[in-house]
Amino acid sequence: MPELTDLRDRTCIVGIGETAYTRGTPKSALELALAASLGAIEDAGIKPEAVDAVILPAGAGSGGTAGDFIANFGLPDLHYTTSLQEMGGAMCVSALESAAVALVSGIAHYALIPLCSRFYSGRKARQLNSDPGTGLQSAETIRDYYAPFGVAAPPQHYAWMAQRHMQLYGTTHEQLGAIAVAMRKHAQLHPNALMKRAPITLDDYLASRWVSYPYRLLDCCLETDGAAALLVTTTERAKDLRKPPVYVMGVTSGHPFPPHDLPNRPDLLKMGLDFCAPRAYAMAGVKPDDMDFAEIYDCFTGQMMLQLESAGFCQRGEGGPFVENGRIELGGALPVNTHGGLLSQGHNAGMNHLVEAVVQLRHEAGTRQVQDAELGAVTGWGGHGHGSMAILRR
Amino acid sequence: MKTDSPTPIVKLPVLRGYTKEFYDWCHQRELRFQRCQSCGTWRHPPRPMCGSCHSLQWEWAPTTGTGKVYCWTIVYQALDPAFANDVPYAAVVVELDEGPRLATWVTGIAPDQLYVGMPVEVWFEDLSDDVALPKFKPAEAH
Ligand SMILES: [Zn+2]
Questions:
Q1: A322: left (phi > 0), else alpha (psi -120 to 50), else beta?
Q2: The model's pTM
Q3: Whole-number Å distance between alpha carbons of A394 and A44
Q4: A24, A199, B15, B98: which one has the fewest Cβ atoms less than 10 Å from its Cβ?
């Protein structure tokens, strides 16, 4: 009988690729996704023809279809492809889970996970509600039940959760601001961070304009263009490749109820990560305290704070005090988003979080390296609170 | 089709299936939600099956239209230009006394006067010939 722990350490991330994160690009999503993919394949030191699984986090919205990758890389025999589009920003970590399942089962041997996000040049999240064709329930719920009341975009409906948290637990604006400031500090240390030359102080944060209370402009993630890709294989194959393998100790997905609507959750603050984080730790055989760093999906400051609670780094309601006094900064007890995150590096739906975790565990992060990093956690969040979590080690 | 109206029209729900039925009741000045006919569990947004007992039998059950403020956000930047003249406005989640919650507005009160648990009651605003939105106002003293 298979067990949850059967997936522990059975697969490795062996290649990463990433383009620049920019505001505006002359390149198509497919060109960017192919460039990042080629980077991941070359980083692993395999031939493109060896890829026999393409996991598309956002389906065709990942930059191309499976057919595009077959045609452009000349893949001779693709065994497996799938998509996690409904999970929104939780899809990238969940794609790693799908890759692990396909690889350990023997269906495939080398899985490519590409994602291009064109949040600056393409359609913006705020325009989802007017799209008649996504077929996503979360988008239709916005269109039919939120948008007529002027709630059409994530900073608005996700602000409900932050406001509820403040009401229940006394969370302060300064605590949300501590997250924004920490992300910006980390971005100063990353050559591929959009905000690498734009430091902010807590006063800058408090002076930034309101978008949707309690969210100010500096509570909101960036909108950028760019792509990243991972190459994943089995632990046995990983040993012969170019770079030291990064082991997937645990990787899980979870879903809130009901998934597509926020107001009708019995507990508004209970989300997918609350369900899947305990399974991730069980699969990996480790505890939150064991993590040397965490890359937490930070579409908004409040969503990152909530996930720190859901991922077990602190208790529900304690996220505000937890992020204060530099605890989540480099040099603190739990450095979070050492690349600057969606708030200050760029928005690639969390693929950049996975890439950064690999860079940290390879000890290639330069001035932003977490000293002696052995273990790290990565979370995903999206589509109204679907969740995912990966626990990685060197 | 181009419009000469200076204010773009508020986004209307797509009146199809259950959503049409929900708004048809609103048009008749009734706030109804789905309720399972087997176990009595309310649900919203509408869908075919009861997640508690898996019954496909349900009804559009009436509510009293009274409830309490659950949480809110105050929108300062109208990401939808249709709301440019309304900012700042509070987009509120109201919990009906029967249990279901919905996104709505609480009118007749400044956003900074809202509080969790504030009693409110429904009224209906005609948005078009077909669509009336359920909005709320502070409840009369009981
Ligand atoms: Zn039932």
A1: alpha
A2: 0.96
A3: 15
A4: A24
Give the homologous superfamily in CATH for domain A4-122+221-393: Thiolase/Chalcone synthase (3.40.47.10)
Closest approach of B111 to chain A, Cα-based (Å): 10
Q: Quote the ligand 1 centre to B52 CA distance (angstroms).
A: 5
Q: Is the predicted pLDDT of residue A132 greater than 60, yes or no? A: no
Q: How far apart are CA A280 and CA A8, in angstroms?
A: 10
Residue B100 distance to chain A (closest CA, Å): 6
Q: State which H helix or E strand residue B23 sits in.
A: helix B17-27
The rounded distance, in Å, linking the Cα atoms of A299 and A342 is 6
∠ at Cα A11 (A30, A111), nearest 5°?
A: 25
Q: pLDDT tens across A218-255, in order?
A: 999 999 999 999 999 999 999 999 999 999 999 999 99
Residue B47 tokens, joined: 């869908």
- Chain B residues inside the 8 Å CB shell of A129: 11, 80
Element (H, E) at A173: helix A173-187
Interface contact A147, partner B, CB < 8 A: yes
Range of the domain at B129: 17-138
Residue A5 has pLDDT above 80, yes or no: yes
Confidence of residue A138 (pLDDT cuts 50, 70, 90): confident
Write the ipTM: 0.94
* Domains of chain A by residue range: 4-122+221-393
Task: Note whether B79 contacts A: Cβ–Cβ < 8 A.
Answer: yes
The DSSP code for B55 is: -
Flag whether B63 is in a domain: yes
| Cβ-nearest to B73 among A130, A163, A261 | A163
Closest CB from B12, B72, B131 relative to A160: B72
- Whether B29 maps to a domain, the answer reads yes
Of A126, A148, A258, the CB nearest to B133: A148
Residue percentage of chain A with pLDDT more than 90 = 94
**Is the CB of A258 less than 8 angstroms away from the CB of B13?**
no
Secondary structure of residue A365 in the 3-state scheme:
coil
